[in-house]
Amino acid sequence: MIEQSGESVGPTPFQVGKHQVDEAVVLSVAGEVDMLSAPQLSEAIQTATAARPATLIVDLSKVDFLASAGMTVLVTAQAEVVAPTRFAVVAHGAATSRPIKLMGIDTVLPLYSTLDDALSDLAGR
Hints:
Blueprint: E1 2-4, E2 7-9, E3 15-21, E4 24-33, H1 38-50, E5 55-66, H2 68-80, E6 86-90, H3 97-102, E7 111-112, H4 115-123
Parallel strand pairs: 4-5, 5-6, 6-7
Antiparallel strand pairs: 1-2, 3-4
Helix pairs in contact: 1-2
């Protein structure tokens, strides 16, 4: 941890928020997605898909670190989402889209740079 002005600065705590945008359910993820937090992400995705939304978007824009455990959760979710629900991931930058692309996961996951891009593309389908 780095001390600045008497306050400790560490990693962002893991959080998953859920909100609705038209027909889409958006899970906004923040912090580090690693082997300790991946089960929480998996549970949030399963809970959201149980309601059979038209679209489920996992937004990783505020994720500081994405470990292989987190990528496994995303690939598993893509495989388990049942039509007509569409599934997409928002990831941009070195912490999220880079490892996804390096692992070749972007070939199986619909990947978008911004939430707006995902919403506008998926709304038209």
